[in-house]
Known about the structure:
By secondary structure, this protein is of the alpha+beta class. The chain contains eleven helices and twelve strands. Helix content is 32%, strand content 13%.
Amino acid sequence: MPTALFGLIVAGASAVDASGRTTTGLVGGLNLAAMPAAGRPYASWYVKSAAQCPGKLTPALLAAQGYTESGFKPGIEGPVTQYGTAKGIAQFIDSTWSTWGRDEDGDGTALGAKDPEDAIMAQGRYMCSLVNQGEKSGYSGDPVSLALAGYNAGWGWVQHYKGVPPPAFADGQTYDYVKEINELAKKWATALGGPGVAGLGTGSGPDAIRHAYTQLGVPYSWGGGTPGGPGLGFCDGTNGYLNGRCSASVTAGFDCSSLAQYAWWPSVKLPRTAADQYAATASRPVSRGDLKPGDLVFWSHGGPASIYHVGLYFGEGQILHAPRTGKSVSIVPMDEAMPKGDYVGATRPGA
């Protein structure tokens, strides 16, 4: 059954990285500076989804497919067709969703294919199955392109043509779909961490971001994490619970302040909690208009004494942070990370 043959097709972007270079090759990771801003909050989920199919799928390919399907719009629906209505960020029809969809982020299944985190993970599982079929088929074309064609048109048409359907099929929609996604994925692909994180520049702040960036997709764990990496957390009667159970004690991850500590260590040995990190760096405040990668940004319920969250400024109005129990380390727009009115200020730990 086709997933989204007559779904929404969005033209691929032609962005390049901050130095003007077009990335080549389908390698691991995502060049967030090249992606549309709407897709960046889902970057860690594309990383997790590709990890379900190691060596066969990349985060860049799945993200490019998500953009081509929906423009990263989780609530979108395609037109009604004989196969059903394609829904959500990955444009699943109901029959396909019933096979591949499940709750991945701990918030239930009420949204179905319109839950973006659940849909991105289902997209990776379905694509992996199709890639495996492509490897076994002996058809012309690489397995990933065959999988993309099967996702768009249905595997039956790949079998019919013994390869990617030609431009004459469906007015070229499937042929163009495969071509556009492969080309867009190349532009968005870069290695995780290191100098491959585009547009950050040099210095201790960008280095802190590069360090934290390697932890995209690692789960949130209240009280978890150390300067050495993810670790088990604990529950304190209020925090660390998910669906009535203590999640933190069985989850190796970070909370917001341990991620900031990990990012800056050992260049700057930040204290453990967000409030203490603010106090330790308050002598180097940064106005919102002067934020640079690696700066610490803080939210409070009422001034410095009530700080409850810290994130790392990533650039272009985004922060990299560990949000809350049930979520994972991610990059999100700064004004969407926490209530906008709770923003209390920013500091710069290093030079």
